Amino acid sequence: MPRIPLEDNFNDVINKAQRGLKISDEELSKLSEVSPEDLTAAKAGSPNYGVIRRLARHLRLSPDALEVLAKKRWYPKQPVFPRSFAAFNTPHEDMTVNSYLIWDPRDRSAAAFDTGANCEEMLSLISAEKLNLHYIFLTHTHPDHIAALPQLAAATKAQVWSSELEPVDFPGARTFKENAHFHLGSLAIKTLLTSGHSPGQTTFYVTGLSWPLAIVGDSIFASSMGSSPTHHSEQWRNDREKILVLPRDTVLACGHGPLTTVAQERENNPFFAHPKPVNKPSTPNVPDNEHA
Prior knowledge:
By secondary structure, the protein is α/β, with parallel strands linked by helices. The chain contains 10 helices and 14 strands. The chain is 29% helix and 23% strand.
């Protein structure tokens, strides 16, 4: 698969943090001692590193990691799975979206995670590897992640599963609770509720492959995290307490952008590398169904 760009630039991170923490432009300008003009420029992508660092301190972001992102000096080292794992990246409107396939090398049983906007390449691999797709697991039900669900389900007759907190509107679909366990030959799959971006946003933690694997959907991205103007703190907390506590070599298969690892995100993600205290508490949660 060709190199996939990072999902977010530094100004996307600034905007996500500001929206999530409910800090107005006027308040952020005053807190960070940045002029309104410089704030507007930074949010539009102007790489004034002094301004960026001052903003970071008041947005619970790492100034160092945000500056490195702004300078385009970091891209995650890509982990290699010699077998039994495949990633697919398909265009959807003005973005691209990822889906994934894992399988047991002995009995050829397989599971898909999300479908992307097109599943032709996934179906081709399933046929070439003579796989039997048992499950289609959904990290969440936003349209870009399930666009090809009817096609994939019809072609494979696989069971469709989503969180009980976010059931998919699809005939015969089933739901799981948090900490549900599934087995696929020698592979084990555990569900972790990492809500925030959406009510039932789920991370699937897989063991038995070459590396521990977490299919995280839009919970977290390389150098960023999924957006949630109303559940930002919930998403941040779940990322930190359920994903970034996994073993350091755990591969994070994100809903958008490239693969990364727990260790790399702990050190390079502006949201999680040495987070700073928040200067303003977030507002109470209300229902959220935002996209990445």
